[in-house]
Specification:
With 118 residues, this protein is of the alpha+beta class. It has a domain of 78 residues. Helix content is 45%, strand content 17%. Strands 1, 2, 3 and 4 form a four-stranded antiparallel β-sheet that branches. The radius of gyration is 21 Å and the shape is flat.
């Protein structure tokens, strides 16, 4: 006989929904398949130095629309291929980069065209 708890608190429900929403790569697939899933979803990709040499050639980056984050050349994080934590390089989709990063000239134009409201 299995007894299942029926009276869940609001906190229990929030913790369960948070745990369910975390991305977990499939253990049945290879690391390259999990990395390609990240790319297909348009997520930021983090690669250690060993895997940068294997996967981040200019031709591949252009084909998938990614660019290396040169403003911050190294980040500390888990490599999306081997899951080893360390100094890594970050790659972001071009369209996401264009939306989120603004150049000095764009900021200067925004400040020039801004309206002061009292």
């Amino acid at each position: 006989m299995i007894i299942v708890k029926q009276d869940f608190t609001e906190k229990d429900i929030k913790e369960a929904s948070l745990a369910a929403s975390v991305y977990r790569p499939s253990k049945a697939t290879s690391n390259i398949a999990n990395l390609s899933d990240q790319v297909d979803l348009g997520k930021v990709v983090i690669l250690c130095d060993e895997h940068v040499r294997m996967f981040a050639s200019p031709q591949v980056l252009r084909r998938y629309g990614y660019r290396q984050m040169t403003d911050y050349p190294y980040v500390m994080g888990h490599c999306d291929y081997c899951k080893v934590f360390g100094q890594s390089q970050m790659y972001m989709r071009e369209d996401v980069f264009a939306e989120s990063w603004r150049t000095k000239e764009q900021r200067r134009q925004d400040a020039k065209n801004a309206i002061i409201v009292n």
